[in-house]
Design goal:
The chain has 184 residues and is mostly helical. The chain has helices at 2-10, 20-28, 38-43, 45-64, 79-93, 111-120, 131-140, 152-162, 177-183, and strands spanning 101-105, 123-127, 165-168. Helix 6 (111-120) links the parallel strand 1 and strand 2. The protein starts with a helix and ends with a helix. Residues 52-138 form the SAM-dependent methyltransferase Erg6/SMT-type domain.
Amino acid sequence: MSGAIDLASGLGGKIEKKEVRSAVDQYEKYHGHFGGDEEARKANYTDMVNKYYDLSTSFYEFGWGESFHFAHRWKWESLRESIKRHEHFLALQLGLKPGMKVLDVGCGIGGPLREIARFSSTSVTGLNNNDYQISRGKVRTLEFIGLAPEGSQRVSSFLEKAADGLVEGGRCGRPRDRHVWALL
């Protein structure tokens, strides 16, 4: 696990090297395979999710760069070129025009939002619930805009006033998303 501990703490990771093993142990205890139970997992869902992203974000950056998604690749394209092309395609599909405001829900460290903003000359705001990923996004760009206020009513109000479009790349498989999207 030595290499993994180095990576989890070596790219600016939130978790200190000496604390990685403990964070992994705590995360594993939320799952039945490691002796955890469903009630404890549900009661500590926010902590479990944050531990996952605190531990995995450095690996994502190492493997994917700033954008935590894949895209179809042409034979001659690099992974990074295919991802940029896909993000440009998203901007075109949304019909984004200079000066528009866009909300990127679940923005990770902000790779797609920065590329879409560069490509389309729009203002893109990132919305994320993981402090470590937000801090990595801020490190990655001086113009990282930040978060909408907490709370569903405030988020709905924020969207009505601040967004002409919505980008969202990875919500599949999250248990309570129906409630979020019902608000949007």
